[in-house]
Design brief:
Layout lengths: L1 H26 L6 H9 L6 H5 L12 H4 L9 H11 L5 H13 L13 H36 L4 H15 L2 H12 L23 H39 L2 H8 L4 H13 L1 H5 L1 H11 L1 H7 L5 H11 L2 H29 L11
Helix pairs in contact: 1-17, 2-5, 7-10, 7-14, 7-17, 8-10, 9-10, 10-12, 11-12, 14-17, 15-16, 16-17
Subcellular location: Cell inner membrane; Cell membrane
Keywords: Cell inner membrane, Cell membrane, Membrane, Transmembrane, Transmembrane helix, Transport
Protein name: Microcin ABC transporter permease
């Protein structure tokens, strides 16, 4: 097992390097970089993308004016000012050199400072992390608590009316995009057009500090209910079907027939023999399921419900072309995803010690 873990850990290095190279290369071709953003803000435009729509056809890259015209809206600004901006953001160096410097810093877990927030990337991530973890953890737990009993029930009653009706509900739930369900919840229960039961935005109320301990707990769950429901819907559908199919596959095996022939009750067969084997893939997939919900729905859900988490941070950084935040969070999340893959394999061994990864080759 130790050799397998070592191989997987070593594989993280080229995988993470490939992720960073691909994304860094793609970013070089995206217009509206941090220098252009700074120029737009200096001229009071606020956002460089407004400048892309007009006036671009009048710009000709020629002769000594080529440098200034490279940045949309840069006319009227001193060339020295633009060069100073390039130096400040590191764009006075070739892309390859910038990339190598960035990797050298990332190896030391030095992710730099945000271009536009005057705060370190690590501090930003630590500040936003609790919101995203809270959303992802509760969504995953609820998905498991509902999906596992429902999946077992569907497997035991396979082909019955209960199985048919619940399958229809699951298919509908899986087909509904998370963001659309989030909007529906807001319209129905957050004062959109019907009931004002839950708050419209945020994770806590304005008077959070004045609340008692029980009041804070109640206020927290009051705010987190709708975002968690919106995040859970697709994971709930997938996990239920996974549990059902896993149990059906085990129920048809020879050892179950043998257990029944020995006179064991269906409950003893199901929970004494089938449960452990059938739940192997479900339990071992918990880390990956959490990361999937954590990454997959956080951007849209956090934006819709105005939650100040990592998803919203990444979205705002992409819009503002805040490269230290973009690449820093990409590196952190990529590393987390790869480590979680190893943890998932270890979970398989923990649930079923018969699994031997040492027999794998490569």
């Amino acid at each position: 097992m130790g050799a397998y873990i070592l191989r997987r850990l070593l594989l993280i290095i080229p995988t993470l390097l490939g992720i960073m190279i691909i994304n860094f290369t793609l970013v070089q071709f995206v217009p509206g970089g941090p220098v252009e953003q700074a120029i737009a803000r200096a001229q009071g435009q606020g956002d460089v993308f407004g400048s892309f729509a007009g006036g671009q056809g009048d710009t000709e890259m020629a002769g000594e004016n080529a440098f200034e015209d490279r940045y949309v809206g840069a006319r009227g600004l001193p060339e020295e000012f633009i060069k100073e901006l390039e130096k400040e953001y590191g764009f006075d160096k070739p892309p390859v050199q910038r990339f190598l410097i960035m990797l050298g810093n990332y190896i030391r877990f030095d992710f730099g400072e945000s271009y536009f927030r005057s705060i370190g990337v690590t501090e930003l991530v630590v500040e936003k992390l609790p919101v995203s973890i809270s959303l992802g953890l509760w969504s995953t737990l609820i998905a498991y608590l509902v999906s596992i009993p429902l999946g077992i029930g569907k497997a035991v009653k396979d082909g019955s009316k209960f199985d048919t009706w619940t399958s229809g509900i699951i298919i509908v739930a899986y087909a509904i995009p998370g963001f659309l369900f989030a909007v529906l919840l807001l319209v129905l229960f957050a004062g959109g057009s019907y009931w004002q039961i839950f708050p419209l935005r945020g994770l806590t109320s304005d008077n959070w500090e004045q609340l008692s301990l029980l009041g804070k707990i109640g206020d927290y769950f009051w705010h987190i209910t709708l975002p968690v429901l919106a995040s859970t819907i697709s994971a709930f559908a997938t996990l239920t079907l996974l549990t059902k199919n896993s149990f059906l596959d085990e129920i048809k095996k020879q050892y179950v027939i043998t257990a029944r022939a020995k006179g064991l009750s269906e409950r003893q067969v199901l929970y004494g023999h089938v449960f452990r084997n059938a739940m192997l893939i479900v339990i071992a997939g918990f880390p990956a399921a959490f990361i999937g919900i954590f990454f997959g729905s956080s951007v849209i859900i956090e934006t819709i419900f105005s939650l100040d988490g990592l998803g919203r941070l990444g979205f705002e950084a992409a819009v503002a072309r805040d490269y230290p935040v973009i690449f820093g969070t990409l590196f952190i999340f990529g590393l987390m995803g790869l480590v979680v893959g190893i943890i998932s394999d270890l979970m398989y061994v923990l649930v079923d010690p018969r699994i031997d990864f040492e027999s794998r080759q490569g």
